[in-house]
Amino acid sequence: MAPFLPLWVAALQVLTLSSTVSATRLPIVGPVHFDVITTSVPLTDANRLDPFAKDGRSRSIMASGYYPVSACRRKHQEPYMPTKLASLQDKKFGAYGLPNGTFGSLTLETCDKIAKSNSCFSKPLPLVLFSGALGTSRLLYNSMLQSVAAAGYLVISVDHPYDADFVEFPDGTVITGVDISDEELESALTTRVEDIAFLYQQLGGNSSLTDHFFPGYPHRHRFAHTAIVGHSFGGAAAAAAMLQIPSLRGGMNLDGTMFGPVITAGLDRPFVLLGHDNKTQETDPSWKATWPRLTGWKKEYEVRGSEHYGFSDLPLITSVLGFQKQLPNQVLGSVEGRRMMKLTVTYVTAFLDFLFKSGSETKLEHASKDFPEVVQVA
User: Fold this and answer.
1) Based on the structure, what is the number of domains in the chain?
2) pLDDT tens, 163-210?
3) What is its EC number (predicted)?
4) Alpha-carbon radius of gyration of the chain
């Protein structure tokens, strides 16, 4: 299976499900501590043309924020994704048997009114930037990132228009993804990194933007403790962004082949490679080439029984809807969906805790006991 095959392609080839679904809330999993506010924000870089649009327009992106709150007065069921985008995803998946209305039926329980200021956050919270797989909406990681935020992290995910399958803007405009050839991957990677750098720069100097992502957050402009995580092509983008943005403190690549100058230049800050079954340095030449050039703290893990699409919300969605067993193992692997989500969130937050909170590997060591299917390769 190609490392950057869009998340939905293989699944679509095998889904043969019933024609109706009922409303389903996706649960927060992992080390839950806080309720979470979710937001979506469009941003336009007036100083950069969109290389995909080719019509002279400025580059615009969509981003989602996930904000942990200590005192939530009111919760509500938030749609998993906007109605138009949910319909587009349903049509795409429905052509192969996914029940109509699936994505529109999914919800997240979020906070929409804070009882008081987040007084328990006397110090700035660490920030986590996230970039997803090629041909995949940022919203197909909604539940995973909500769970990471619930562990006490500010999280922002980025959609890269024309690279993602569909990106919906607040005015209803939808940008459909384009086919990106192997020869165009490094150019697309450069665009992703520029998107990430623009977002990060804006956060450091725009208090109103911070308020949009994290309403009521008391520590504006204070994002010195920032890490980046990515899945698939987003994992390559995470490493490339660290090379370009020295202030990023660490990164994590969830199952992504490496691309670009980082393969030869390496990184001097903490970095984790977390691969699916049989994705290791021995099977991915880009990992093998990069590994000796990672001169900071580093770990490599392999999740036995998992597949490439396991590092997304798809395992959890199929599990709570009750049709994971109808999919062959080569789509999501043999790890049960809720467990796969908990595993991913646990390792991501354990790494972040090591990086920003404790400096100790204790939680990573405990995770290996809780999830024996995860093997430390290096």
Assistant:
1) 1
2) 999 999 999 999 999 999 999 999 999 999 999 999 999 998 777 899
3) 3.1.1.47
4) 19
